[in-house]
Specification:
single chain; 2 domains; Dihydrodipicolinate Reductase, domain 2; alpha/beta; 6-stranded mixed beta sheet; Rossmann fold
Length: 349
Amino acid sequence: MLRIAVVGATGAVGKECLGLLHKGIVQVDSVVPVASAASAGRDLKSELGLDLPMSLVSTLDDTDFKNIDVAVFCSGVESSRQHAERVAAMGTLVVDNSSAFRGRPDVPLTVPEVNPETLAERPATNLVANPNCSTIQMVRALHPLHVLAGLEQVVVSTYQAASGGGNRGLEELATASQRRLTDAQAPIGPPGRFGQPLAFNLVPEIGLPDESGFSHEERKLAIESRKILGLPDLRVSATAVRVPVFDCHSEAVYVRTKNPVSVTAVEDALAMTPGLRVYRQGERPNYPMPRTVAASDMDRALVHVGRIRVDPDDDRAVWLWIVADNLWVGAALNALEIVSLATKLGWLV
């Protein structure tokens, strides 16, 4: 049994971590919710209706991490940079949801369904990085294709929900949408969490661009996918778009394989992979959508893949449409699956 802390417990991902612990994804002795001083003393157990052995909210400075087995950081990159290594140095395993440590060679970047071998031994740093939300769902669909036919190139366009911007992003989209629906002439709002107003709009840039013009989000998709798949030379190029959808990220993914494939072979390879739901040609609909993926816990826990096509003129060119819940599959669920795997391997406790 574990003593676990959730840092950033009042945020969008932190609340999902608590909810998943309530559902029993990991058996725990105690849960310590950690947040800012403004939230100190809150009773999240009562607020969220959780059946957990859980204390009141404490701050990072007031939490004794020497008595914590594992801390899941969901509080953003700056918080992780300032505090995660300090907590890890106390002997606490830190599973970090931010981008702070993903590029470090001494920190595993882990998707348990794809590269569980990265957790064969406890890292000396006591740090494990959770990948980017869009990366996780993509590599979980790419991995069986690599086993089937090898990967040569990936081109992806993401359609990312407002929940990727946390509570603030969700509130901005809800408020601006309601304002516009109430008054068609009302402005949709000033730039906010997403740089541009999101309601009834598309924002084709997530994160600041580098000198090449690619944004931080787009670079993460490329760099992290190579590391997780163990393919340092894989060509990956991305366009990341924020869309006015509340939950679930979607991706249109073009894959060029090393060997020829058929639609049936691709569908079968994906369908045999645990954690994937495949929408085959001939099904109606033959594609997933954010509103249906977010409708049930069963669907929220899966990566959904549809519109599987092999180019009639090129039997090494495959198109996939991938949808997953970014707060579960892309964040909280993957982080707690890391904790669960570490426990099963016997080195966490």
